[in-house]
Specification:
With 220 residues, this protein is of the alpha/beta class. 32% of the residues lie in helices and 18% in strands. The protein is built from 5 helices and 6 strands. The mean pLDDT is 95.
Amino acid sequence: MLRSTVHLLRHGEVHNPGRVLYGRLPNFHLSELGLKMAERAADYFGDRARAGARIVYLVSSPLTRAQETARPTAQALGLDVVTDDRIVEALNRFEGLADVRGQLKDPRHWPYLVNPFRPSWGEPYSAQVRRMMAAVGDARRNALGIAGDGAEAVLVSHQLPIWVTRRSAESRALWHDPRRRECTLASVTSLEFEGDRLVGVSYAEPSADLLPGAANLPGA
């Protein structure tokens, strides 16, 4: 039975002095610290490759911050970046707002808060998992087609889609407290497969020492 691994890499820190919930808005670039995080991710995957890992397929969300995070890894591994809309950030009705906590005191927003389990303010968690896992499946099959047994792929995505995909993989409820997501900037959530069966989930933080003081607004 063929083994494969798909790594879900979250983008690095974004330059966002206005603390806007940027969601799917264009032209939100990595900060200087975010670029360092992207380099750390490239070092992480480069070290894996030098140790014998066969990382042969690289995919990114179309959003600027994800594309910029993917580039150093593409250079380190000699890979092209494939863009996949299915791993984009979650839709959110509060996209574009600054000081979201303060904005939620406005009664106009209250109808969107009635169901945190779906959630009512944005794209259903279950829909995010479906599109992410479809992309994971395609990336895994493409990697296996290139390198065979033990092939690995990297998908550069966003905190919420990665986190709910991990929760689904671990058979946990998809609803959660956003403040308790284990999916820090430029972190790596790895899904391990035997054939089509998901057999393991692991997590790493190549930029752990860069996280203190980093801006880390939940995207959704």
